[in-house]
Amino acid sequence: MSRKAKDRTALEERIGYKFADQAMLERALTHISALSGGPQNRSSSYQRLEFLGDHVLGLVISDMLYRAFPKANEGELSRRLADLVRKETCAEVAKAMDLGPALKLGSSESHAGGRLRSTILADVCEALIGAVFLDGGYPAAEGLITRFWEERMLKPLRPLRDPKTMLQEWAQARGLPTPAYKELARTGPHHDPEFKVAVALPSRPSAEGIGSSKRAAEQAAAAAMLTKVGVAVDKLDG
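The chain above was modelled as a monomer; its predicted structure follows.
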């Protein structure tokens, strides 16, 4: 057995699932930098599987939460779901699976530390879920997710995060710089001012927020941008 085959067998043992179609596993572990033929050959990388795995993960975790917390309301379930499917959690799971050594990367990406990069590890984790789903169906994907997420699911719920913190974490997970805030206007009397603030990130449409303080306006702008990119915002009391 070749070194590569041994590494894949060891990975299957760690995740508790053996692929009938080894090509499916190969694709789930292949970064676009390892492909020849440029962007038109993207389908041979993990990207399409990542899209599928992201949604399979959300469905399975939602079902697990619904069953595990029968007294939880929709808000608590949504918060738990967001915490369990976020990129940071997927990267943690990828490290628990020891996916890094099994990745197929181009030489430049490999030399740049791609095997340790959280964004890549999170994406490959989701791709692996998608691959297991296609290879073995929903029960196989459910078994994999339960194996690596059940203990995390039963931990106490993390404290609510404010929108600025959430946006900064979202940007950091995607290799983007810290969001930049700019005061656009201040109106109203001195004792009751109203601030208007914009927040910007590269290659993303800016968002604006209004508040009775500059900080409140920044939080509102961050919440607006999170909504634009499809992230559910934690609801803070008051």
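The chain is about 55% helix and 10% strand.
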